[in-house]
Structures are given as C-alpha cells and as structure tokens.
Amino acid sequence: MKSILITGCNRGLGLGLVKVLLGLPTARPTHIIATYRDPQKAQELLELAKQHSNIIPLQFDLKNFDRYEAFAKDVEAVVQGAGLNVLFNSAGISPKSTRLNFTRQDDLVETFVTNTVAPIMMTKAFVPLLRKAADSNADAPVGPHRACIVNMSSILGSIGANSDGALYGYRTSKAALNAATKSMSIDLKANKIMAVAMHPGWVKTDMGGSKAPLTVEQSCNGMVKTLLALNESHNGGFLQYDGKTLPW
Fold first, then answer.
1. Which Pfam families does the entry mention (predicted)?
2. Which of 87, 150, 154, 157 would you call most buried, defined as having the most Cβ atoms within 10 angstroms of its Cβ?
3. Rounded to whole angstroms, what are the CA distances from 64 to 33, 67, 70, 207?
4. Is the pTM of this model over 0.70?
5. What pLDDT, on the 0 to 100 scale, is given for residue 248?
6. CA 215 to centroid of chain Cα atoms
C-alpha cells in the first residue's frame, strides 16, 4: 500500500488512523494524504506532518462539491502517476436530534450530505486514480495493495441489528452508505477495485462519548490490521474494526 487518502483527519478516528499507519513496523505507506477543514482544529495533524514527510495534509471542505475535481488533481500531483491505492472515507457527523418527535429536517439533510453524498461523490472523483493504481499493480491481489475503497460506516446503520430505534439521521445515512458501498463493489469489480463498509466500534470520541468501551488507538489499530488483511473475498462486505462480518 503505497498511498492512502483519509478524510476527516483533524481529530478522532481520522487522526487515529494516521497515527497507526505511521507506527507500522513494515508496509508503511509512502503517502498518507490526510484531509482537514479548519487549520485551527487540526494542529496535531499539522505538527505530525512537520515531523513525518510521508504525511501530506490537504485542506478540503467535503461539502464543496465544485472542488472535487480540482482536489483529485491535487492528490494526483502527490502520487505522481502511481495512482491511489486506498480511499478511506472516514469523515462523518452525528446529528443532535435522536428521537422521532425531535428529528429536524435540516439535521437529516446535513447528515446525509456529509455521511452519504460526500463519500459517494469523493469515490466518483477518485475512480480514475484508483483505476490507475489497480492497473499499475496488476501482479498484486485485489485489495489495499492494489485499489480499495473503505467507507466508514457504523453498526447503527445495520437494519438487521437495530433493536433500539431512534437516531434517524445517523442510522439512515449510514444504511444508505452501506447500500452505496455494495453498489461500488459491483460497479468497480471489473476494474479490480474493491469496496467495503467498516464499523469502527463504539469509540471514545466526541461523537462516541466517554462511556464507549474502545479507545481511538484500539479501534484504529484494529481497522488498519483489518484493512491490510482485506482480499477479494471481502469485496462488498460490512466489517467490524476487528474483521468480524456484520449483518446488513
């Protein structure tokens, strides 16, 4: 895995993934391209980038859809003709409204734009670079060492596992992302590009809260280990951070 692009790296799981990739004893990516929106809220990422030349922080607003094509060209300039091995759509939000009677239209729309629309449009923009990586690594098996899309999902997006209700914006946006991931896995299979949805677990982040059982480091260590072990058999799957298959 020579290159990986991770969205939403100013804090939380995105930043945690960058740190774990940096600490890999072997197979450390040549390019860890990490997006952030606000420099004031991404100081730790920017400091890490000063210390490690393989971290390339790029300021980008995922809601600025008019800039996706230009952003893909920025990334192409970094990977210099080799293509992009892994697109990790990590950025996401959770609305404050949860129960049906408190659910608001603007919360639903904002959540869908960030959690569903942005990963789909980001994937669309980067298919050419993913295809280039897949073609350039024709001897490598299907997976992250060739070309792979990972969409950060959640068990809360599972319809089969929903026994508690509520959380309308978050659940529906992640269920929709799961459906999109499955379609990507079918549409891009002929190009040797695989796609999976991944649940990071319940993690101690601003979104997950202090009662969560997993630390960011534990979750991200598991996700990177699972990512590196992906192969063609996982294509179109819904996996937990530790590799366990989850119900749709």
1. adh_short (PF00106)
2. 87
3. 18, 6, 11, 23
4. yes
5. 96
6. 18
What 8-state DSSP symbol labels residue 58? E
> Domain 3-240, CATH 3.40.50.720 — does that match?
yes
Assign 196 a pLDDT band (cuts: 50, 70, 90).
Answer: very high
For the chain, what percentages of helix, strand and coil (3-state, to nearest 5) are there?
45, 15, 40
Paired residues of 89 in beta bridges? 151
Phi, psi dihedral angles at 64 (to 5 degrees): -90, 75
Max Cα separation, the chain?
54
Q: What is the mean pLDDT of residues 164-169?
A: 95
CB 232 within 8 A of CB 142: yes
Strand ranges for the chain from DSSP E: 3-6, 31-36, 55-59, 86-89, 148-152, 194-199, 238-240
Give the number of residues written for the chain.
248
Q: Where are the domains of the chain?
A: 3-240
Q: Measure Cα distances from 130 to 81, 85, 145, 205 in Å.
A: 11, 6, 11, 30
Question: Two tokens at 168?
Answer: 């309308």
Other CB atoms closer than 10 Å to residue 115's CB: what's the count?
A: 27
Q: How far apart are CA 123 and CA 142, in angstroms?
A: 17
pLDDT digits (tens, 9 = 90+) for 99-151: 999 999 999 999 999 999 999 999 999 999 999 999 999 999 999 999 999 99
CB atoms within 10 A of CB 209: 10
